[in-house]
Amino acid sequence: MRCGTFLCGECTELLGEATYCASCMAFVGKHGAPSLFLKLALGLEVIALASIPLALLPPLQVFSLLRIIPVLSPVLSVLAAGLGFGAVLYERRRLGRAGLQPSASRWLRWVHAGAWLHLGYVLLQAYLVVKSVRDYYDPARRP
Question: What range does the domain containing 87 cover?
Fold first, then answer.
């Protein structure tokens, strides 16, 4: 499937519906092809990551469409973190059932790191909201 080597029935190794030779099976076993779910999670993480700087730049909010970005950015980050952690768990189970090594997958590491990044951003946003509400209602800070 990967290298184009002709195989006999004895040297053919099956993974799902794909056939591999021994060397290609070792390569695929080490690196593992990512699932569509993992690719979608990484795509959402990239979009959510791109929305963070847009949410922090007030001059860009002059257009009506860009005014929703400060609200949409934390929501996208929550979705990206949840989908990222879910995709990592799903992919580890999928690769484990197929007999592959999930720890060697670069896709898993990127999605997992992105999920943690978005979780940190969401927690920072929550802290800032709670702090601003607390400061607003603190009678010692009122003039």
Answer: 33-137
Q: Mean pLDDT for each consecutive 10-residue tract of the chain (143 residues)?
A: 71 73 72 78 89 68 62 86 91 78 75 92 87 80 62
Is the overall model pTM greater than 0.70, yes or no? no
Decide if 10 contacts 83 (C-beta within 8 A): no
Q: Are residues 38 and 83 in the same domain?
A: yes
Q: Residues 79, 22: one domain?
A: no
Same domain, 10 and 58: no
